[in-house]
Design brief:
This protein is mainly α. The protein has 23 helices and 14 strands. The strands form seven sheets. It has a two-stranded antiparallel sheet with strand order 1-2.
Amino acid sequence: MKKILYIVLAALMIGATGCEDFLDSESYTKKNSENFPVNASDADQLLVGVYATLNQTQNNTACSPLLVMELASDDRFGGGGENDKTFQAWNQLMVDQLDVLKPTWEVRYRGVNRANMAITSIETAMEDGDDKNQKLGEALYLRAYSYFDLAQIFGNVPLIEAAPENVSEAEVAPQQKDAKEIMQFVLTDLWRAYDIMPSVKWNAVTSGVVTKWAAAAMMARAYLFYDGVHGNGNFDAVPLLEGSDKASLTKDDVVAALEDLKNNSGHQLVADYRSIWAYSNLTAKNGGPVTVGSDKVQHNLKYDYVSDADPWIRDGDNPEVVFAIKCTSLSEWIGDRLGNTNQLALFFSIRNGGNGADQYVNTFPFGQGWGAGPVNPQLWDEWSNDDPRKKASIYNVADEATELEGSTPYQYGFDSQWEETGLWQKKIIAVTRTGKDSDGNDVLCNHFASSKDYYAATDELQGVGRDNFQVGFATDLIIIRYADVLLMHSELTGTANGMNEVRARVGLPAVGYSQEALQKERRYELAFEGTRWLDIRRWGIAASQLEKMSGTTIYNSAVRTVQKSQGGGFASRYQATSGYWPIPQSEVDISNGAFKQNPGWDASNGVYVSWAN
């Protein structure tokens, strides 16, 4: 049976905008690739469908590339409940079933196909100029983003370089390409995007929109990954593919792009590291009333840790954010719209705060979720207490959880939390607030109803929090910060300037450049932001770092035990898979031999069944 892969989606989408795409005639009544888009507004209509795919795996968040890579890293465990086998499997470099990543495969190829169609249409219909270059650059970046995720997760994947021009082309299954070539394609797109996009200084209007600066930063990230995983670690030139005006991308090209970003973008470090994250909002900073328990005990909830902090810089207003995925909240659980919300905040939040309706008053301002990704205690122990980012990034139950009168304090193992350590990250997490219920009572709300609620212009609260804790996460998902740009510049140039600028922000003394110093700085500055897994892979230290997790104390449903590999050893699993996950088995099966499964993935050694004590 011939498999018409996701390329057929592009054919269907072209047909939806006008069958004339396949004909030698012009339509005067319908939009098609020859007459649409003709201006920036038209192009935005076309691109919105491509942007939408960035977050759509959060309709199945357990398969989100960022979640997979965070839980696979050495700084976090799988967590969740006893039945959350998918979470625990990621940390073991295993899967609970060989088709588990099909949602990721599907949505990323949906992004590729939509981007391909956008690229063709913009190149064909728009007049040359800044508007065309901006919109074409956005489409190229978005295609590269999808392929970068595919290359990181799966390695060898099909390469679909353009939308099909006719039905016959759409029926031909694309060839599976080597991961190295996929990354060359990614870098070709990112260079083109950076090279053609106009230089526009950062402003809040551009939040969530791909810019020249986002292309420069992502290009540096992709170049470093290519160099470490597919190159020889010497920052050699990378051959670019057809479509670029350059034969190869050099280290100097990437450094120049980063320096262009530094000098001309308007992006900068914010003064207070804590103000990047939503827990420093004014509600947490200034406090608010809440009634706790059946005895109606009154408390003023306030997060003392942020009393001296600059308040949270709400989404869109933060000049440190180079690129973020926009999120909003919902009033109820709506399956096909969950990708509009920041579902990672739900998955990464504290599973238990104590048994009772008011349990999360004791972990204020951190709220309820599924308990994925407990922090590895080794990170806490290795991170100097002199570094302010440690407490700014990790919530330590022993130090920060309270025992307010009328409530039940934090309990280990409540609701069968697995791989519990008492340490939770503070960056992508539910943030609670005080407010009033529909009867006017002072209550703790599970979350903010919108990003505006995080940041009140006055001490008075804005709006009322929603009761459905599963769908109200509106904070944007930060993908690249300016701090990362400075650290990548230091790594590429072998100089300490960028690294020390990042350190100076949190009051740490300057250090000389070394690979060890750079690796520590990235680990601490960017903890829990989705970069650690890529870093340890490209530095060649993944196997050794992962093996260190063995023997760490954890609690499974309140029973003390130690972390151990369920697949014969963390290092051996990494060596068997090279850090890649299985191509969805259904895609391999239906390809009739065209697709080869990645090494290390079969039912005998790659499938996680349950925790084995």
